Amino acid sequence: MTLLALGINHKTAPVALREQVAFGPEKIDHALEELLKQPQVRGGVVLSTCNRTELYLSLESQEKAQEQLTKWLCDFHGITAKDLQPSLYWHQDARAVSHLMRVASGLDSLVLGEPQILGQVKKAFALSQDNHSLSSELERLFQKSFSVAKRVRTETDIGANAVSVAFAACTLARQIFESLKHLNILLVGAGETIELVARHLREHGVQKMMIANRTLERAQLLAKEVNAQVISLADIDNRLAEADIVISSTASPLPIIGKGMVERAMKARRSKPMLLIDIAVPRDIEQDVEKLRDVYLYTVDDLESIIAQNLAQRKAAAVEAEFIVEQESGHFMDWLRSQAGVSTIREYREQAEAIRASMTEKALAAIAQGANPEQVIMQLSQQLTNRLIHAPTKSLQQAAGNGDVERLNLLRDSLGLDHQ
């Protein structure tokens, strides 16, 4: 049995290729079904995110696996091996185990230590459970990886200093205002970055939030989660004066908040300070806004120093995390190797039981035909002993004849004999 991890990620492939190889939610069930039809595949998990597409597999044998699985992946997505192979990586057994543990712990992420990947790995695992596409070894590996990720979070500071733009924006706001709890915060946009910002703010006790977005339905989903009010982009001009902090991240090609809009808001606020954090590219807030009195405008570039400082702290924690992964992957491989022993022991016991049953049946038949029971039992014990020790005796003779002292001692130890 072989464990295999193969795929592409942000380190090996450009976004154009990652898009081609991604498994959308509507494709996962079919992909798992087709994977299990491939030669030697006993179980599989498909992990597909914006930064990686990976297959985690247990195989009966690795013979021709690389060629077959590459062909399957290319055929499934309608791409050529020539386009895929330069970006494709393969990890087998111990390296596959270590790779999954690093992925689940955020050590292989674009943003070092980010926590979202663990949820994505758990979701991929759950989908494989639902589709009955897990082997016992894969199930054990994923469960172990989840506990390793938890240990990394608990025993290191890998997640103590977030390095996302969203968290940096919240950090900046907390540095400028003594408390965010009683401030009114306007969030412009409802994409992934603003979602993270909203959750961070909620965790820090913010009670008053407004979410402005072009699509109200999307904003309402987020608003329900963080207990915020929803307004349209057109309402910003009328409601901007209420905001102590504005954090904006949309995909708009043109600024949404202009200098005149902010001037009107500041007049209504009677020059009460306002913090604006623009983390959109292109920018959502006109640059001239920074010239206004009592208005503090920061862009995504201004957040770089916060991110750089926190990233340095995360890199230090990552050293500790890598040690945990190395230790835990070693433990898992010890368990995996022991499973081969369990199988061998089971076969050995089944063989011995078959010999016992066969000889007992013959002995009982002899007694039933009138043979002397005492003689039958003595003959049974002798024959049973000879049959059971035949193979070990042959191995001992071969080891002794070859002068293989190491093997001889190993056999003696296995048979419960003292070493010579």
**CATH topology (fold) name of the largest domain:** Beta Polymerase, domain 2
Which percent band covers the strand fraction?
5-15%
Report the count of strand segments: 10
Order of helices and strands: EHHEEHHEHHHHEHEHEHEHEEHHH
Distance between the termini: 36 Å
In which order are the strands of the major sheet placed? Answer: 7-6-5-8-9-10
CATH architecture of the largest domain: 2-Layer Sandwich
Please indicate the count of domains: 3
Q: What does the main sheet amount to?
A: 6 strands, parallel
Residues in helices, as a percent range: 55-70%
Counted by DSSP, the helix tally is 15
Uncertain regions spanning at least 5 consecutive residues: none
Rg, nearest Å: 32 Å
Overall average pLDDT: 91
Write down the CATH class of the largest domain. Answer: Alpha Beta
CATH superfamily heading of the largest domain: Glutamyl-tRNA reductase, N-terminal domain
Question: Structural class from helices and strands?
Answer: alpha/beta
| Shape estimate | elongated
Characterization of the model:
The chain has three domains: 1-154, Glutamyl-tRNA reductase, N-terminal domain (Beta Polymerase, domain 2), CATH 3.30.460; 163-306, NAD(P)-binding Rossmann-like Domain (Rossmann fold); 342-413, no CATH class. It is built from 15 helices and ten strands. It has helices at 15-21, 25-35, 65-77, 81-84, 94-104, 116-130, 136-155, 165-176, 192-203, 216-226, 236-239, 259-269, 304-368, 373-401, 405-414; strands at residues 2-9, 41-48, 52-59, 89-92, 184-188, 208-213, 229-232, 245-248, 274-278, 295-299. Strands 7-6-5-8-9-10 form a six-stranded parallel β-sheet, with helices on one face. Strands 2-3-1-4 form a four-stranded antiparallel β-sheet. Helix 8 (165-176) packs across helix 9 (192-203). The radius of gyration is 32 Å and the shape is elongated. The two termini are 36 Å apart. The relative contact order is 0.08. One of its GO terms (biological process) is protoporphyrinogen IX biosynthetic process from glutamate. Substrate binds at residues 49-52, 109, 114-116, 120. It catalyses: (S)-4-amino-5-oxopentanoate + tRNA(Glu) + NADP(+) = L-glutamyl-tRNA(Glu) + NADPH + H(+).
